[in-house]
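Handout, tutorial session.
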Amino acid sequence: MNSQKRTTYSLILSLLVAGCFLISPAANARDTSSGSSEEVNQLLSQVKAEAIALRNDVDVLAVWARSKQLSWKSHSEKLSNIKDHVNQAGQLLAGLNEARGTASAWQQQAIDRIYPLLKEIADNTEAMISHANDNRGNIHLAPYEEYTKAGYDLAEELASLISDYVDYEGRRHAKERHVCATRGCAFGTSQAPQNGVCASLRRVVGWRIRHEGFCRDVCASVR
């Protein structure tokens, strides 16, 4: 068994281990009263970066496969890059599951949706590598093109999924900051003490006590 195939098995193993966290006690963790976890946000952003890099590499490989370009060695090197992206994403997913207890409801949903898709990508990556190893003399056979196309579709789906969640958090935070800052200006920070501004902000329709820390930070910035 060659080294590339062994590392592929470790790739699958890392994702299976990450999947085990989904049925651990942390899987039932409640939404935290303080809102979204910054640690989870950072991990999601890192997974997003890996997913985009993965998509780009698989896209190149799919083009090579369709046009029957380049040698087995070139394909093997690109497959190694793809494998590394999937392995890194699997490690980040394990970190996300470990941080699940601090995650908000939408962050937990993101973790749950990422796992099965990443597992499917890992399985397809294993199939691509196995095909490459078994057909060094003629890698450009019909199944290989199908694997690369499926790999691109899955990678694109993963990148889009994670981007949606990460962008949602950015928009949500920007909206809250805008509401808090503009309300603070409307109440007139020069005419009321900071605590009074925050008290008024908490009376805004839809505002919840769990945003008090965020409110305090913004009030300090607009003071």
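The second record follows below. Compare its token runs with those of the first.
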Amino acid sequence: MKTPLLTFLASLLVFSGFAPWVQAAGDAEAAYKTLVKAPDFSVGGVGVAGVVTESDIACRTLMRAQSPGPLFLRILEEGTPAGKMYALCGLYYKSPETFQQVAGKYRKSQESFEYAAGCMIMKATIQSEMPNLEANRFDGLLKDAPKKP
């Protein structure tokens, strides 16, 4: 009796648009897999609807992990430029010593990515966003993702 109800509830979540929220609530490895292929970078809600992206949620999830540093370092080696920006944020806020060890390389990085802020989407480079990171302008990642209504 419980199995059909659970199946119904799971499919309701998947088909109602909550799939990214369910996936992001997963473990650190699932968050890593999302971040390593992040298509763009954003902190907080974007677009007219203020949607929090799957990558943003994954970064917050990984930041809550017990030891996120090694996974963030893997993203720096294997990830998209946007994924690397999330990894740098994670290291900056959760492993400052490690961040300082790798920051020099990325302060000069011309790798570009799409950066969504509010209703604007722009091109940015890791180099151009490092000063914003180091000025704590991405500290929204320290907050839990907004709850769905």
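Points raised in discussion: Confidence is low (pLDDT under 50) at residues 5-25.
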